[in-house]
Structure formats: structure tokens, C-alpha cells
Amino acid sequence: MKTLFRHIRAKQLSLHISVAERDAATTAVKYGYVCAAVYPAFSVLTQAMRCRAFEVAVVPSFHGIQTKIQGTADVKIRVVFLITALIRALMAYMKLMKSAKINSDTQNQNRKGGAENERQQPSN
Q1: Nearest to 9 by CA among 54, 55, 49, 56
Q2: Whose CB among 5, 68, 82, 108 lies 3.0–4.6 Å from 48's, allowing a Cys bridge?
Q3: What is the 3-state secondary structure (H, E, C) of the chain?
Q4: Exposed e or buried b for every residue in 34-70, given b needs 16+ CB within 10 A?
Q5: Cβ(75)–Cβ(10) under 8 Å?
Q6: Residue 3, CB half-sphere, CA atoms under 13 Å: how many?
Q7: CB 54 within 8 A of CB 42
């Protein structure tokens, strides 16, 4: 993912959130939660990819009833990097599945062998 984000180029990113609830106290608490999540996430996102201009604003709306979210993004990525990232992810997934199957087969053989040994009785 990190290499994929390095190849994304953003001319502009903007996010505007107006936090609103029926009660002012609930609005204030929700506003705090949203700020605690949005600002660090947006910071990590803009540092991980090349971004010329970005804008993020979270404001409480004590007169509103419903939270509103508006955002725009003007991003570019070369298809070659997207396909390469997809192939890498697919290969990692296949390797993980192969490893899981080998472990599963080994455990099944150990269990099967133990069950057969328990059924066999020594002959006199």
C-alpha cells in the first residue's frame, strides 16, 4: 500500500464536515470524536502521497439536525503502478493461502495418523 500511495499524485484534496445533532452537548462530543479521527487520518494521507493543495475543515453546527460531509479530490495514478500493486497483492495472497493449506494438511495428517493408531489393537 505504501508504494501505491507514493505514486498517487493529488492536485487538490478537500474535505468539509459539518457535525450536527439535535442536542448541543451531543454535537460537541461528536465534534470532538470526528476531529480526533479526521485530522490525523488526513495528515497521514497527505504525507503518504504527493499532494499539492489540501484543505480539511470540521465545524460544529449547533443549529443543524444532520451531519453533512462534502469532499473533492483531483488525483492521478499511472495504470502501470496500479497493475503492479495488484499483482503484488495477489502474489502475497496466493503465498498466504499456500502456507495456510500446507499447515492445514500437516495438521490433518497428524490427526488422522493418531486416530488410526488408536483404533489398532496389538495382536497377540
Answers
A1: 49
A2: 5
A3: CHHHHHCCEEEEEEEEEEECCCCHHHHHHHHHHHHHHHHHHHHHHHHHCEEEEEEEEEEECCCCCCCEEEEEEEEECCHHHHHHHHHHHHHHHHHHHHHHHHHHHHHHHHHHHHHHHHHCCCCC
A4: bbeebeeebeebeeebebeebebebebbeeeeeeeee
A5: yes
A6: 10
A7: yes
Residue with cell 499447515: 103
Note the pLDDT tens digit of each residue in 82-105.
Answer: 888 889 889 999 998 888 877 777
CA distance 23 to 38: 22
Cell numbers that stand for 18 in this block: 459539518
68 sits in the region (left: phi over 0; alpha: psi -120 to 50; else beta) called beta
Length reported for the chain: 124
Whole-model pTM?
Answer: 0.60
